[in-house]
Design brief:
Elements (H helix, E strand, L loop, with lengths): L3 H6 L16 H24 L5 H24 L3
Helix pairs in contact: 2-3
Length: 81
């Protein structure tokens, strides 16, 4: 294993970086949207029926779900998997 100084002075001697693995982001975005939706329904019900949760929690969950929809649109438009 070359030292850091040797690697900085002679980068051609280092191993090349491996190719990046293909990653599918759509399931991750969909799961995130589902989590925001479930937490949003729970927060809304606690806010509406008991006043236990502040209304900002409901809006935060709505914003998270909306950002997920925007993220899916970006993934679709760019042609990413």
């Amino acid at each position: 294993m070359p030292s850091l100084i040797a690697a900085a002075l002679h980068p051609e001697r280092c191993k090349p970086s491996p190719e990046p693995l293909p990653v599918t982001l759509r399931p991750l975005v969909r799961v995130g949207m589902m989590v925001w939706g479930v937490v949003g329904v729970v927060a809304w019900s606690l806010w509406f029926f008991g006043g236990i949760v502040p209304g900002t929690a409901v809006w935060t969950c709505a914003a998270g779900a909306a950002l997920g929809v925007i993220g899916l649109g970006v993934l679709h438009r760019k042609g990413w998997r």
